[in-house]
Amino acid sequence: MQLNQYIDHTILKPTTTSADIEKLCSEAIQYSFAAVCVPPPFIKKAKELTAGTLVRVATVIGFPFGYSAVEAKLAEILLAIVDGADELDVVINLIALKNNDWEYLANEINHIMPIAKQQDKVVKIIIESGVLTTEEIAKCCELYDAAGIDYLKTSTGYAETGATLAAVQQMRANLPPEVQIKASGGIRTYEFAKQLIEAGATRLGCSASVAIVKGAPAENEGY
Predict the structure, then answer these.
(1) Which residues pair with 124 in a beta bridge?
(2) Where are the alpha helices (DSSP H) in 88-164?
(3) Is 196 in contact with 165 (CB distance < 8 Å)?
(4) 34 in Cβ contact with 89 (< 8 Å)
(5) Of the four listed, 67, 185, 201, 202, which is most buried by Cβ atoms within 10 Å?
(6) How does 169-187 read in b/e, with b if 16+ C-beta sit within 10 Å?
(7) What is the CATH number of domain 3-214?
(8) Which residues contact 114 (CB under 8 A, 6 or more apart)?
């Protein structure tokens, strides 16, 4: 299996440097990864470094906890679009979810989607599956499918539990084929990456991408 085409080569550490982004983009071009996923301040640099290639530039919104106000997320999205991001990985408001405020979540996504889609941006919604019940995951599938998102994404990589086969399988069973799945968080081996794809994921968020595609053991590096 050619895993490179599924991978969003990722660095989202709060201590990320310009040198880190240069290395990330160079590797993404070398291994033909689908995208790089970078902190918002590095969107412009990543766009410059990947110009003329097929590597897309993704960034995160409301990351990593998701409890920013809707207005703050919209501001982040607008800035990311201006800077040239192709894809937006948006963390939902987990406080609203855990307080059973699905109306808030519907309002949030219904404000986000028109802005993103007007600019033809890919929207990936991060639900942090590792802290959700199966019932909550199922409700997320229903809500975000109705909103017209492109991908439902498992995790930020900052929760105790990242991507799991069970979460991907449940998401795939509860979503129509046109809504894709991105698995992320704790993916460090070729075998696990392959299993996630077989379970239904079509994108993988990885920081250990090079080691994964080489089938080599990865260093214990953060997401």
Answers:
(1) 89, 151
(2) 94-98, 102-118, 134-147
(3) yes
(4) no
(5) 201
(6) bbbbebbeeebbbbbbbbb
(7) 3.20.20.70
(8) none
Q: Is 47 a catalytic residue?
A: no
Per DSSP, helices labelled H in 127-208 are: 134-147, 165-174, 190-199
State residue 1's pLDDT score.
83
Treating both helix axes as pointing N-terminal to C-terminal, what angle do 134-147 and 165-174 enclose, rounded to 10 degrees? 50
Give long-range contacts, CB 8 A cutoff, 24+ apart: 136-142.
Answer: 136/97, 137/167, 137/170, 137/171, 137/174, 138/170, 138/174, 139/102, 140/92, 140/97, 141/170, 141/171, 141/174, 141/175, 142/174
Alpha carbons 70 and 76: distance in angstroms, whole number: 10
H or E element in which residue 58 lies: strand 56-61
Point out the catalytic residue in the list 89, 121, 124, 150: 89
**Does the active-site annotation cover 89?**
yes
Q: Are 156 and 187 in contact (CB under 8 A)?
A: no
Q: Residue 112: which residues within 8 A CB-CB, separation 6 or more?
A: 70, 73, 74, 77, 90, 123
182 near 154, Cβ under 8 Å?
yes
Q: CA–CA distance from 60 to each of 29, 43, 101, 131, 140 (Å)?
A: 21, 10, 23, 19, 19
- For 65-119, what is each residue's pLDDT tens digit? 999 999 999 999 999 999 999 999 999 999 999 999 999 999 999 999 999 999 9
Position of tokens 């794809």? Answer: 197
